[in-house]
Design goal:
The protein is an alpha/beta fold. It contains 13 helices and 8 strands. The protein has one domain: Alpha-Beta Barrel (TIM Barrel), CATH 3.20.20.60. It has an 8-stranded parallel barrel with strand order 1-2-3-4-5-6-7-8, surrounded by 8 helices. Helix 2 packs parallel to helix 3 and helix 4 packs across helix 5. The longest helix has 16 residues. The chain is globular. The mean pLDDT is about 95.
């Protein structure tokens, strides 16, 4: 188990920037690490990635110094366990709507006494727990894992006050596109009603002393969000490539 640099930065009120990636190629993770990004989030929801492939992607993250996180496709404790055992250091869970679902996520991610995660002699624990005894490892792992449910449904917004009372959560990531669709805006989140709803959720999360994360398409957007107290900014590998390619292709314009 490695120190979770991203969680340490967030606890120190320092912003982190990274990408959500649906690539199964560890080389992409390695490139993102050597580019200086803070985290690489494996997309286990909108990609064909398998738990066997996750382990190699995590190894590439470790080599290049980027923190491996993952979005897991469902709140299934056995699936969550496989991602964590492979070395993923934090989870973003989509589709959260109720306090009970958040509690189930915490239970799956954390070892006892906080949760019910099963202990195996796997790579996340250096196979034989390295220099730590079992008690030390369990405590360290519980401290280092990062839990970030996604707020991307209007039902979650309606339940936000109760959701914020669940122990063990580090913060929440707002998904503007799905949230907008759940509010009946199928053309995107660029509506005043959506913006106002997101702003209200951001304020409540911050007042609860928790981390706020959301998507940022550009560096300027990330800076504006950070100025508003959003500490975790998320782009995509495809988004970064598209914007960089667009800038590069300006060179051939006459």
């Amino acid at each position: 188990m490695k120190q979770n640099i991203v969680k340490t930065r967030l606890k120190n009120n320092q912003p982190v920037l990274g990408v959500l990636s649906n690539s199964i190629d560890p080389t992409i993770a390695e490139l993102c690490g050597f580019s200086g990004l803070d985290f690489y989030m494996i997309d286990g929801e909108h990609s064909p990635v398998t738990t066997a492939q996750v382990q190699d992607i995590v190894r590439a993250c470790e080599v290049s110094g980027i923190t491996p996180l993952a979005r897991v496709r469902s709140n299934d404790p056995k699936l969550i366990l496989q991602f964590l055992d492979a070395g993923v250091m934090g989870l973003m869970m989509p589709g959260i709507k109720t306090p009970a679902e958040v509690e189930a996520l915490v239970q799956a991610v954390k070892y006892p006494p906080t949760g019910v995660r099963g202990l195996g002699l796997v790579r996340a624990a250096d196979y034989l727990q390295g220099a730590m005894n079992q008690g030390e490892y369990v405590q360290f792992a519980n401290e280092q894992t990062l839990i970030l449910p996604q707020i991307e449904d209007i039902e979650a917004v309606q339940n936000i006050d109760a959701i914020l009372l669940v122990d063990g959560v580090d913060g929440f990531v707002i998904g503007p596109r799905d949230l907008a669709m759940s509010m009946g805006y199928y053309d995107g989140p660029g509506h005043d009603d959506v913006r106002k709803t997101i702003a209200g959720v951001v304020d409540k999360i911050r007042k609860a002393g928790l981390i706020v994360g959301t998507t940022a398409a550009t560096g300027d957007q990330a800076k504006a969000l950070i100025d508003r107290g959003v500490l975790l900014c998320l782009n995509s590998v495809a988004g970064l490539l598209k914007s960089a390619a667009g800038d590069f292709m300006k060179g051939r314009q006459i």
